[in-house]
TrEMBL record:
Pfam families: fn3_5, Peptidase_S8
Cited PROSITE patterns: SUBTILASE, SUBTILASE_SER
Family: Belongs to the peptidase S8 family.
InterPro entries per UniProt: C5a/SBT2-like_Fn3 (IPR010435), Ig-like_fold (IPR013783), Peptidase_S8/S53_dom (IPR000209), Peptidase_S8/S53_dom_sf (IPR036852), Peptidase_S8_Ser-AS (IPR023828), Peptidase_S8_subtilisin-like (IPR050131), Peptidase_S8_subtilisin-rel (IPR015500)
Residue stretches making up the C5a peptidase/Subtilisin-like protease SBT2-like Fn3-like domain: 654-765
Annotated transmembrane regions: none
Active site: D198, H253, S578
GO biological process: proteolysis
GO cellular component, one term: extracellular space
Protein name listed in UniProt: Peptidase S8/S53 domain-containing protein
Keywords of this entry: Hydrolase, Protease, Serine protease, Signal
A GO molecular function held by the record: serine-type endopeptidase activity
Amino acid sequence: MLAHQFWGIRSLFTLALAHILATPFLTHAAPFQSPLTKSAAKHLQNGYIVELHPSRTVELSSERTAQVDDGPHIALQSFLKAAIGDDFVYRYRLMDPRLFFGVSLVLHNPADVSLLAAFPGIKAVHPIAILKTPKGGGAGGDVRTGEADADTSDIDAAQSNAASVLTEVTNGVHNMTGVARVHELGGRGLNQLIGIIDLGFDYSNAALNGGRPNGQTCFGAGCPFAGGGAAINDQGEPGWEPDPFGDCVSVAHGTHVAGIAIANDTHHGFVGVAPQARVNAYRLTACTYPFITEDAVLASMSRAFHDGVHIVSMSLSYDSGWESQPISALASRLVEQGVIVVAAAGNAGDLGAFDSQAPADGFGVIQAASVDNDLFLGHTAVYQSQGQPGGQSQSLVYVTSRTFFPNASQVFPVYATSKQPFSADDACDPLPSSTPPLKNYVTLIARSTACSLDVQLAQADEKGAERVLVYNRDGMPTLYAEAYAQTGGALKAALIRPEAGRDIAERLAAGHNVTMTFPASPPVAVSNPVSGRLPSYFTQYGPSLDLRVPAMLAAPGGSILSTFPVKLGSFGADSGTSMATPYISASVAAYRGLRGTSESPAQVLAALTTTATPVDFAANTSILDTVVRQGGGLINLFAAVQRVTDVWPDRLALNDSEFFNGTQTLTLTNTGKQTQRFEMQHLPAGTINALDGSSWTQGPLIPQATQQASASFAPASFSLSPGASAAVAVTFKAPQSDQQRLPLYSGFVQAKSDAAYGSVTVPYLGLAATLGKLPVLNTAGEPGNRQPALVDPSTDAVICEDTRTFNLSDDTQLPTIKFELFAGSRLVTVDLVDFNTTFAATIPLQCGEAPTRPSPSSGSPHTVVKPVGNVARLTSVPRDTDGMQYATAGPNMTDPVSGASVPIPNGHYRLLLRALRLSQRPDQPASYDSYLTHGFLIQRR
């Protein structure tokens, strides 16, 4: 079995393979994450995705059978075997030249990476990223229908009532999106095959096994889970296994995702978006190996294509900003081949704008944004206090997918972590030692404004809490608190109304003992007036770093009920763009089930985008949220199915101030049977400021109604007879905003029709600033410890002289530059240059002293410099990657002429760091931020 280890960042820069290293030194990973966290991806130690040039011309074909071109793979394998014997292992071979063409491998000796540069057929080399895995999909639990409640007198009635409430809650989501009305038309995804690439799948769940008893599996022909497989075996080894089953906590996410798409549990009344569609499931992880490797995703995407899926759904993401990451590139090629691809937009909305994700930022890929659910499942509890006048029992509703306790007769004392109602930091820190063991209590916690809900629940869990009621605050949205608890643990959590929490906390503060029971009673539906149908706080902001209008749609993703593995309770709730992704994927299946399969991916995207409903930023406002967060708006599937107008293009990119494209043309076509009269209207969204001084503005970004674009139309109104088309010129005027804050303005052009389902809206996006002026390199730090800087590789201390000597004998003897990116970049290079170079960088020499290099007057940032050799070359770098970055020189470099890896000769040198600014030409020296380090000597022993 291959041992899997992870790299840090620094080691990636020791590669002598710099001229073909084609990915960022660091990528973020935000697949399946809690909306509250975001972590950097690691990399598989000595693991690489080697992209190869095909040996023949690639021909696009509608045939899904694999086109095998294995010549380059065999040649590379023979080349490596001749050089290093068996000191490498192939992981996955990707041999269809229409798709991503290459191989992933692990080298036993990290120094052998330099051999790849000598192989003539290599196109690019990418370190294998390890994507972040989910916490398990939130805390699951049985959706109670009365059958397990000990003192229910009429089980059949309770089951019937519970099922009707669950149906109401389920249909509440579908009513938000028009899916319920599409179901009435018979649009349930018949004959559509969705490829879901995720963690693991329990197809024994009664909602996923074709109506069989709960716990009985159904996989293959005639089953809702029609096929698929696993990219790794149960031991975590790469390869291909025919069974995607997985029901442990660490892979529960896939079952939840699949239920959103195709669940069909008539007993409980739970129905997914496309219950007649079939799923091919592709498992990426194992219970014993909960890591997602980038190459496993590539292999699964390729397999899904060859298996003939119509739609690929991927609830995963990691930081990118560009379309050229391997997963994004393959997603784009699947779209070219006619496959509709939907991917999560990401859950790090708190990090602000220009933070698009792979694979969602691939060309033609539908990005799934999230809006909050507006109807929840609730249950009833009763509390009372002894010794208090008027202390008769009171009832409350707690929001959860399951009852807290099936024994209605058991009485629990209530313990409040703070008896002061609405304490802002309640349970944000470890609970005091005076806290009793909470196992046999109902623990009451005020929802905090100072820390996240998962932190509060974790603090209670540390004290053994098993039942936690979190009382909400006015103005905060309803949610399933259980989704923030550890999956599979003993702790159950639910949300209650502010008034109930205050009442209990005040009774306890007055010295009264409060007890609580959980009687058997039918569930109830609970509304969410604060955030229902509005953007989820976690949903991620675009745009891509090349300022493309996101091909984005919003769907329910905040607090969503769906299936869980049977051993985890069969049903539960979770939140994330992971939930919106299968919702949109299955909506496409339902759409194609009614409209047919002749439309291309671009036509389907246009139909859904231009019939979506633009949503406001918040309740009780009339300000539309920015397009970079909602795209076309909340999907309206019924409007898309019924539409009688087509419009192209489906998005308008106005670019930035330097490349402003203010006049554009829309072409509208009447596809209905009656003449339509159109009035052109402008629906501006609020402008968001991407920058706050020298930092990215933290989300949620407040849209400004006073800084909006204006638009005019020619013609402003017109009529179209059936089958006729008309061109409309749209002229925009950008708002006068503070360019230093990088204002992103956006909105919608609406062609309002007098015919039912004739109106269409087209989103637009522009930047009221020059993107190319945005600094790429961060120059923060304290005097004496600023960056970029040449640093001691052992102590990280800034080197402020020109005479430090390195002998290149080991990692402590390699010249090292540290730096941090502020914005992303298409290209970052670190070159070894002669000490006496006349190049003058854009960033002054650090350390707060007089320059020791030649005066800037003798050189220029625009000077073309001839490097001695290259030590790092990185492409498609995302926005402000986490932490400081380090590039090391030696012991080899890449020769700038031959491209070969050669030893660095003795001499006196500097390191030159250059980062291409956004939207600038790479062949122009003035397009780069640059920094030239202090000098250093290389003197080999």
